[in-house]
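Bumping my old thread because nobody answered last time. Still need a sequence for this structure:
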């Protein structure tokens, strides 16, 4: 039979029995009658006689005066009345006094009666605990009370024999009274009845001390004797360990079968001898055989004497004799008993031994008595136990044996606190069952107010349970707040786990909730978060200090919530609230909140202002039932800063030094504790220190305090199973085998996967009660996706993929993330509202803070709530290029990166054109933006393909540097756009990157993690707490409460995946689904300047658009409107062009010359073409060609000739005003001097052949002179000081700046050259300012 080791723990303390004496007051005495004075008795008679004599004299002397009789008559009547009242009043007063005394005494006896009954109940509870009913012993087996009595305990071998009356432990002392005749009879009778009734307590367990007798004989009917004997043995085997008590049975014949159940008892197994089936059973036919079995145990024992001390380190031996063989030659009989040996005789075979040195019990007619020389004294009813009940108990005990280290304290004198094991928590708390099967609802049953929130957590010095009651002192508790200090290795974490687990197991989640905080790691409360009571498990705050502030807000929010709940119902405190709820009020549960914070000292070091919330809880915690336990390894001086006044109980585990112990519990004793984890002191205000050893709940669970025994030895002989019989079985012979080396047994290692008490209890509690109010929501770690922030998505015919019926559809109000509101203990959607004055936006955050992600989320959210007809996006990405993934959305009209210079300009120009067109159209239609949106939504507007257009620029600082000329245009869009449905959203790394004038226009602002939190415009102090390295985290100001809240940006995807690394794939999936679901037109695409504008097609378009254009020379199209651009030589007679080689300089001249030839006749215009490189040779094939100069001398001569002609056109003094007005004083063609490669014609430092014409440049309109020069961009800045070009610049002649290097600096104003495609550049005129144009292309012959 396999065995299990049992480790005996410190004994549980029994209920305290009553004691002392009650001295009763004597009953009242009968008042004594004192004889009166003879003179006093005679005086009334004398007065009456005198009055009658006076009346007689009046009658004799004044017979006719009746009035004279009045006075004597009154005196006589008064005297008679005085006599009557005096005699009656004395007796009546004494009787009334006696009645009152009797009432007072009877009332006094009633009070004493209640006290006596209370003492009787306490005495009964103590007796029933020490000596329970034998029929209930099976329930104590395998529990902590099994084998609890040790040899040095005063009740060792004290056995309950039955029930009977016993004197009240609190002695009632009758009063000393006078003679009975002088006592008030009714009160005296009541006193006698009271003493007689309450001096004895009926039906109490009656015990016998088995050690005090060498033999105990049982007399009466044999079945009655055996029932009583089984009851006695059951108590022996339940409360005494096999190492302390042995039981042997002497029985023969048929009687032996009645005692076969005893073979299962561990106490009847021989300590050392074995037989063929295990340990030898100490059951024999004769007493001699038993003596032989126990020879080693009996050999050195002395002869029995009543006062002899028990033999040290020797078990007490009980030998049951029932119809066994007794020869009277046994040593026990000859010696008339041995010390530490008791014979239990059921056969009356011991002769005078039971009479001389033992006890003879008589069982008869359900009465139990003791026989003596004078007869039988009956004292109660016997206890009985059947064979079935006895065998059930024996089988329950049969597997257990005492372990080698089974004692924790006890006989060895070891400190009971230094025990190597601990009792199971549930058993220690009085909760029936084990951690796997215990009834949770029974454990959570409503408790009396005194026991509520009271939990045993450790064992005291004397084996008693040490309890902690977190209620306030006014409710008979120790709380509501406390402190726990313990050094490393002191068992602080385990103590906290035990305390928390005990509260969880004994209180429902409707009565108690918890917030568990571990500042450093999280191992302290690991696994407890599954319990329904736990409102929050907050760990590893040291790694993210922002969570400390979040926790502060959450706890402050819980304080505020509880105050609001109480104020709503006008309740004074939570006790009143719960009382009203118990009385039927329709109220939600408001459970007590236990806040346990580990390493709070380090928390205060990192966040000193957290002391404020501790102080707040200390002040209001009593009324709100918020209990706080602060734990730490160290307690520095001044760290509590006034909090210590609220800490009513303190727990000091072993500390680092005496000073910390003194600061924690007021004495240095905690520093002197032994280095045993869990050892500590409990200090409560107004109570002495209590030393304890905390329970251990994190160890591997072994049912009912048991541990597996070592591995069994292999059976080497007969392997067939054998019956377990009481008789001796010969040991079979082992077959001979070769000797093998002895292997040392390796210690059995505990399986790391075996569950602990804590894990099993928490697992059992899981789902058993309503979950706690969620005080702490998980931190913002996992970003939400669009499908979780929006209602269910579906495809509709009119809106495509969207959330049907969503109120935010078509409102320009969109969710872009989640905002954390710890004070309100909830999370809300983070909204971006572009419908009103805050229609422009800015997203600012440091590098890798999630700016681009938020822009993509914004676009995705808008795309899922608006159709491509309602909103359009134009994206400029100068950040990381992540916006490119949004280009496939049907809502996106254009995307441009750093290299798409023209497209960037074109986007801005497109929106400028949109504003201009809407301004004119809405003025004519007399509508505004709101009306436009409504009409657009109803489909009434057909001539405007745009809805609300959004220009999004990611990387604002880079944009300003790369597109310096475009920044003012975007600022103009922001200034005018909101009135016409144009929105600007920029992403920047710093707020300082956005100019103040621009920033004031950006009403919707989102701030992510900044590189320098001191630059925050939300709150510099809060910005420090935005965790780095977590893209999408930021802060925003709550408009309603003014609080600074943290938020987390959502992901632009609808595939439920929260992986930020695969957002590009998610965006592609989103774009494909949106495109497939939308059947309408896409967002208007950005119209770009063509890279090659064919002159023939261009002129066809010009002819169609402006057939009557006059002498305007068409040269190309502009970028803003893609409209034709003309050179008006009548208004601006000259033109300059600067561009690098291979960038279309000559084509510019070809286009201009072709335009002149088409707009002027040969009689109206002549062209002097200077073409040193002969790139335009043969281009002018009409009469417009005046001269084609290919060299310097030729060109110089031609200029001189033209000079002479122009000089003749200068107005003279005879020219009239009318002629000046009409320019009619001369006639002839306009002269166009067109120079290609001006840098070759007029090299710097050389002669300039055009110098003679310089004087005519200002009067060019009067003389019909037009100069058109084109030169390389290199050296353009210096060329502006050239006589000709300088003059042209002075008169603000139109200038075209084509492709070139920025290093040339500003050419005109702040315009710098930049690389451009051939024929493209910026045309600067006085009338139109700067405009990007593309020259038409003429293919050279």
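Sorry it took so long. Here it is:
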């Amino acid at each position: 039979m396999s065995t299990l080791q049992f480790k005996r723990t410190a004994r549980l303390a029994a209920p305290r029995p009553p004691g002392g004496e009650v001295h009763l007051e004597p009953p009242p005495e009968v008042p004594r009658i004192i004889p009166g004075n003879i003179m006093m008795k005679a005086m009334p008679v004398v007065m009456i006689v005198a009055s009658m004599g006076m009346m007689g004299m009046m009658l004799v002397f004044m017979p006719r005066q009746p009035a004279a009789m009045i006075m004597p008559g009154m005196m006589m009547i008064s005297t008679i009345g005085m006599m009557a009242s005096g005699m009656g009043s004395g007796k009546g007063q004494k009787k009334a006094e006696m009645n009152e005394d009797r009432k007072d005494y009877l009332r006094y006896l009633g009070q004493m009666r209640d006290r006596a009954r209370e003492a009787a109940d306490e005495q009964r509870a103590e007796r029933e605990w020490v000596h329970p009913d034998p029929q209930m012993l099976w329930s104590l087996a395998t529990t902590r009370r099994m084998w609890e009595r040790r040899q040095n305990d005063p009740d060792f071998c004290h056995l309950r024999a039955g029930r009977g009356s016993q004197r009240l432990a609190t002695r009632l002392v009758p009063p000393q009274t006078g003679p009975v005749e002088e006592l008030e009879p009714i009160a005296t009778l009541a006193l006698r009845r009271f003493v007689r009734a309450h001096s004895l307590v009926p039906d109490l367990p009656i015990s016998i001390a088995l050690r005090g007798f060498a033999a105990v004989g049982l007399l009466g009917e044999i079945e009655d004797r055996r029932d009583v004997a089984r009851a006695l043995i059951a108590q022996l085997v339940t409360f005494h360990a096999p190492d302390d008590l042995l039981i042997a049975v002497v029985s023969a014949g048929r009687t032996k079968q009645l005692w076969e159940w005893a073979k299962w008892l561990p106490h009847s197994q021989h300590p050392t001898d074995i037989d063929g089936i295990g340990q030898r059973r100490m059951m024999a036919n004769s007493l001699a055989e038993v003596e032989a079995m126990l020879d080693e145990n009996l050999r050195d024992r002395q002869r029995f004497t009543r006062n002899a001390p028990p033999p040290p380190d020797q078990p007490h031996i009980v030998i049951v004799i029932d119809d066994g063989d007794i020869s009277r030659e046994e040593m026990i009989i000859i010696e008339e008993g041995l010390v530490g040996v008791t014979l239990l005789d059921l056969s009356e075979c011991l002769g005078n031994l039971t009479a001389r040195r033992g006890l003879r019990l008589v069982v008869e007619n359900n009465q139990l008595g003791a026989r003596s020389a004078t007869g039988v004294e009956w004292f109660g009813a016997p206890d009985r136990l059947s064979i079935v009940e006895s065998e059930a108990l024996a089988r329950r005990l049969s597997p257990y044996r005492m372990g080698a280290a089974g004692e924790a304290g006890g006989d060895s004198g070891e400190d009971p606190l230094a025990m190597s094991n601990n009792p199971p928590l549930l058993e220690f708390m009085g909760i029936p069952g084990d951690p796997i099967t215990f009834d949770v609802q029974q454990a959570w049953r409503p408790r009396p107010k005194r026991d509520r929130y009271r939990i045993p957590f450790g064992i005291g010095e004397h084996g008693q349970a040490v309890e902690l009651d977190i209620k306030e002192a006014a409710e008979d508790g120790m709380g509501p707040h406390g402190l726990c200090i313990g050094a490393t290795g002191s068992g602080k974490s385990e103590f906290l786990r035990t305390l928390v687990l005990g509260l969880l197991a004994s209180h429902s989640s409707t009565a108690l909730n918890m917030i568990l905080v571990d500042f450093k790691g999280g191992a302290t409360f690991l696994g407890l978060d599954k319990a329904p009571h736990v409102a929050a498990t907050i760990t590893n705050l040291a790694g993210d200090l922002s969570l400390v502030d979040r926790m502060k807000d959450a706890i402050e929010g819980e304080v505020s919530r509880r105050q609001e709940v109480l104020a709503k119902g006008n309740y004074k405190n939570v006790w009143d609230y719960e009382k009203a709820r118990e009385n039927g009020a329709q109220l939600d549960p408001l459970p007590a909140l236990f806040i346990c914070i580990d390493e709070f000292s380090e928390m205060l070091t990192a966040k000193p202002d957290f002391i404020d919330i501790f102080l707040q809880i200390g002040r209001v915690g009593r009324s709100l039932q918020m209990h706080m336990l602060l734990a730490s390894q160290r307690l520095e001086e001044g760290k509590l800063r006034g909090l210590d006044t609220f800490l009513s109980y303190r727990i000091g585990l072993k500390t680092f030094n005496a000073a910390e112990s003194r600061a924690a519990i007021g004495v240095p004793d905690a520093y002197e504790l032994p280095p045993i984890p869990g050892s500590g002191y409990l200090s409560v205000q107004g109570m002495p220190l209590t030393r304890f050893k905390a329970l251990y709940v994190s160890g591997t669970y072994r049912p009912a305090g048991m541990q597996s025994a070592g591995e069994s030895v292999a059976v080497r002989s007969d392997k067939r199973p054998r019956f377990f019989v009481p008789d001796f079985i010969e040991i079979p012979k082992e077959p001979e085998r070769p000797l093998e080396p002895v292997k040392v047994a390796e210690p059995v290692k505990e399986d790391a996967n075996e569950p602990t008490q804590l894990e099993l209890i928490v697992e059992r509690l899981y789902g058993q009660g309503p979950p706690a109010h969620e005080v702490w929501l998980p931190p913002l770690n996992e970003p939400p996706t669009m499908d979780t922030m929006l209602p269910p998505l579906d495809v509709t015919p009119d809106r495509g993929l969207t959330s049907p019926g969503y109120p935010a559809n078509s409102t320009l109000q969109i969710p872009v993330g989640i905002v954390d509101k710890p004070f309100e203990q909830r999370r809300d959607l983070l909204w971006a509202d572009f419908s009103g004055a805050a229609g422009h936006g800015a997203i600012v955050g440091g590098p890798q803070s999630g700016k681009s992600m938020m822009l993509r989320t914004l676009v995705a959210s808008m795309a899922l709530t608006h159709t491509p007809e309602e909103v359009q996006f134009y994206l400029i990405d100068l950040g990381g290029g992540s916006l490119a993934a949004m280009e496939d959305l049907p809502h996106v009209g254009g995307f441009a990166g750093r290299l798409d210079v023209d497209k960037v300009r074109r986007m801005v120009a497109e929106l400028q054109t949109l504003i201009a067109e809407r301004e004119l159209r809405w003025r004519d239609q007399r509508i505004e933006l709101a009306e436009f949106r409504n009409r657009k939504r109803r489909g009434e507007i057909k001539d405007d393909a745009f809805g609300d257009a959004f220009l999004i620029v990611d990387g604002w600082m880079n944009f300003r540097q790369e597109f310096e000329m475009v920044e003012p245009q975007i600022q103009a869009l922001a200034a005018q756009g909101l009135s016409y449905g144009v929105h600007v959203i920029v992403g920047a790394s710093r707020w300082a990157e956005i100019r103040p004038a621009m920033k004031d226009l950006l009403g919707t602002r989102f701030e992510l993690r900044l590189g320098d939190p001191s630059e925050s415009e939300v709150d510099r102090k809060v910005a420090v707490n935005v965790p780095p390295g977590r893209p999408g985290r930021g802060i925003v100001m709550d408009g309603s409460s003014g609080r600074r809240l943290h938020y987390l940006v959502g992901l632009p995807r609808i595939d439920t995946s929260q992986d930020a690394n695969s957002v590009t794939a998610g965006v592609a999936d989103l774009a494909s689904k949106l495109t497939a679901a939308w059947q309408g037109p896409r967002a208007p695409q950005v119209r770009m300047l063509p890279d090659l504008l064919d002159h023939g097609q261009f002129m066809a378009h010009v002819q169609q658009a402006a057939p009557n254009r006059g002498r305007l020379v068409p040269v190309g199209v502009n970028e803003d409107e893609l409209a034709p651009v003309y050179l008006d030589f009548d208004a601006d007679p000259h033109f300059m062009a600067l561009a690098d080689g291979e960038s279309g300089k000559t084509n510019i001249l070809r286009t201009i010359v072709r335009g002149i030839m088409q707009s002027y006749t040969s009689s109206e215009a002549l062209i002097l073409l200077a073409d040193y490189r002969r790139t335009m040779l043969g281009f002018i094939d009409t009469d417009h060609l005046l001269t084609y100069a290919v060299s310097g001398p030729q060109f110089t001569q031609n200029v001189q000739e033209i000079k002479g002609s122009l000089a003749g056109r200068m107005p003279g003094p005879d020219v009239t005003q009318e002629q000046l007005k009409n320019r009619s004083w001369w006639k002839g063609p306009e002269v166009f001097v067109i120079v290609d490669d001006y840098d070759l014609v007029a090299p710097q430092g050389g002669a300039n052949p055009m110098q003679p014409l310089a004087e005519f440049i200002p009067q060019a309109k009067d003389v019909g002179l037009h100069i058109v020069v084109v030169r390389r961009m290199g050296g353009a800045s210096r060329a502006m000081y050239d006589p000709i070009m300088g003059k042209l610049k002075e008169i603000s002649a139109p200038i075209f700046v084509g492709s070139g290097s920025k290093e040339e600096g500003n050419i005109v104003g702040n315009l710098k050259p930049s690389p451009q495609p051939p024929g493209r550049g910026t045309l600067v005129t006085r009338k139109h300012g700067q405009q990007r144009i593309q020259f038409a292309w003429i293919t050279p012959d």
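The two ends are 116 Å apart (CA to CA). Let me know if any region looks off to you.
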